[in-house]
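Would you mind writing out the residues of a protein together with its fold in token form for me to study?
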Amino acid sequence: MKAKKNFVLRQIADTFVVVPVNDEVKKFNGMINLNEQGAFLWKKLEQGIEKEELVAELIKCYNVDQETASQDIEQFLTSIQDFLE
């Protein structure tokens, strides 16, 4: 699973946003606001990581249990499905 190439993550002060670049700007005129955990996951998706690996990384970095991590990942992926390849 991978984030689309024409969207990039930027940090502005304490805020994380994903913005379109290149030709994608014509199709998507806006930005996606992410919290710290969402930005962490987006960075992993830029590298091309599978769902199971995302869960493991979330557990490791944020010290959450398996069920919580799985539910959070599922919600996150559902909310950004249009931005995944």
In short: The first strand starts at residue 7 and ends at 12.
